[in-house]
Amino acid sequence: MERSYCAVSGEEEMIQAAISRGLDGLAFTDHHRLVPPQRITELCQKYAPFRVFSGIEINVSGEDILVLGLDDPDLDTRSWAYPTLHRFVRQRGGFMILAHPFRFHNFINVDIETYRPDGIEVRSMNIRTQNVARIRALAEQLDLLLVCNSDAHQARDVGAYYNILSRTPCDDSDLVSILMDGDYGCSEEI
Fold first, then answer.
1. Nearest-angstrom CA–CA distance, 135 and 138
2. What is the pLDDT of residues 77-118, one digit of tens each?
């Protein structure tokens, strides 16, 4: 709501929904807009011990790519080609997720074989059940981590799907480390 054109609920409403559902943290991944670092700090202080992490959703050639762990303003001020975004995130130690694959078309429109993301979203509010097996097969073929995300645009959807981390990350780089190590599980697998 503060930054994404498709958001219905605001930041604090989303955080309160996450807390009420027993979640320990969330990452805001607004479309093409980062939450300013000072705002992340304010929200973390206000809702401690609940954690808020930085992220962004970038559309590249019709595919949505989530980037976690980076607060570089270039992420929301540039138009990206997928290989360039991949290189940028790799050089800075971020985590890339192919979000809701097969949502808009029956193929992946970026070269994830050459430029592999770290993970692929297997469950979210924007993934059709009939695509889950296909996503799992693609993840296995390319050795990608599976992630579950709410992709919530309104508070009622927060926590529909989530990742269960092995420990509470202290900051964005620690979150990336946990994810890169595959030290988590998807809520759908419980």
1. 5
2. 878 999 999 999 999 999 999 999 999 899 999 999 999 999
pLDDT tens digits, 45-68: 999 999 999 999 999 999 999 999
Burial of residue 46 (number of CB atoms within 10 Å: 0-12, 13-18, 19+): exposed
Question: How confident is the model over 12-39, as a mean pLDDT?
Answer: 95
Q: Does domain 11-189 have CATH number 3.20.20.140?
A: yes
Q: What are the residue ranges spanned by the domains of the chain?
A: 11-189
Q: Which token pair is 124? A: 């979210």
Q: How far is the first Cα of the chain from the last one, in angstroms, to the nearest whole number?
A: 31
Cβ atoms 95, 70 nearer than 8 A? no
